[in-house]
Structure prediction request, 253 residues.
Amino acid sequence: MSYQSITPGECAAKLSGADRVVVVSGAGLSTAAGVPDFRGPKGLYVTRAYDPEQVFEIHGFDRDPRPFYAFTRDFLSLLGTIRPTFTHRFLVELERRKPETTIITQNIDGMHQRAGSRRVYPMHGDYETAHCRGCGRGYEGSEVEAMLEHQEVPTCDRCGVAIKPDVVFFGENVRHFNEAQSLAGASDLMLALGTSLTVYPAAMLPEIAGGEVVIVNQGEVGMRPRPGVFLADANLDEFFQSVAAELDWSVEE
Ligand code: OAD
Prediction:
């Protein structure tokens, strides 16, 4: 069985008929803003600009937190220079028109929230808060950022052990999983956007979706085709510009 393909016009029609839309977003949503993804042609697992196994692996961090902080320094300064993409902004408009819309994101870049989406569940955490790996003391993300100006690795002022931002590493539990599961089950339309659907448990959300699923992703996805799952192998911003035109929605800058 192969995927049923879907056009922007058909996606617009499905959105018109849905109320409880759940979006599962991945790194492909932010590539147009200049943030590299993981498994796309310029992804971190392909270019090896950083070693993702070492950077995002909890035992690796405890052995040596410097590779993660080398990534973080570059990542945070990149975030300071970029803007949300058309698709991020389209999703803000979607929530404005359909207030039950929720976004379950695997992204740690905070771009949905910056664009103005409100019902966002960052399943892989974010840089908003941090904790000491020794004594568990909590820190604000802004405090950690300030420490990065004069420390290669921010350390706890109580016990001296490395502080880790609350982004989810391999070897740690994802956040908001119970909410994500029940939202997926109760959805009448799920959009899986810019994600290769290869990392569990986020990748299982389309499998347990209560209604139809529309995947928009350039390149392969890890989910097996089944009835009610549609795929557009398309560039996200181009696809949703057409969807917005079909719906006659204006999307704010
Ligand atoms: P991936 O890099 O695995 O998948 C992103 C997908 O988006 C790829 O298939 C790209 O081809 C596609 N893509 C990129 N730009 C696009 C565009 N403009 N339009 C359409 N498609 C585009 O990223 P995720 O699925 O988000 O976890 O990866 C999941 C998790 O793997 C990440 O959250 C991260 C990583 O290891 C942790 O760090 C815990």
About this structure: DSSP finds ten helices and ten strands in the chain. The first strand starts at residue 4 and ends at 5. The CA atoms of residues 132 and 157 lie 9 Å apart.
